[in-house]
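Practice problem: predict the structure.
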Amino acid sequence: MMNVSGSQFHGILKLYGEQTKVNRTMKTGVAAAAKPSDSVVLSPKAQEFAGLLAKLQQTPEVRPEVVQRLSAQVESGEYRVDAAAVAKNLLAGAD
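Answer:
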């Protein structure tokens, strides 16, 4: 068991009071207001990229109207592949 004298008790209360003031200051943001805030500035290219990315995320992965049109062409035998165009695009993508 620990014995605390009256003067020690008053010293502890004083320290506790000071710590309480510090904690209140931190909670109210007075001390935080002195700190500079972080900020980010995006370049025009990054802003353009962000806009394009947002549009891309809104674009559906599957376009049902295109799938329906191509499926109908395949079923009816009307779908034709232009082999020369496919080969040209393959070669163009190889660069």
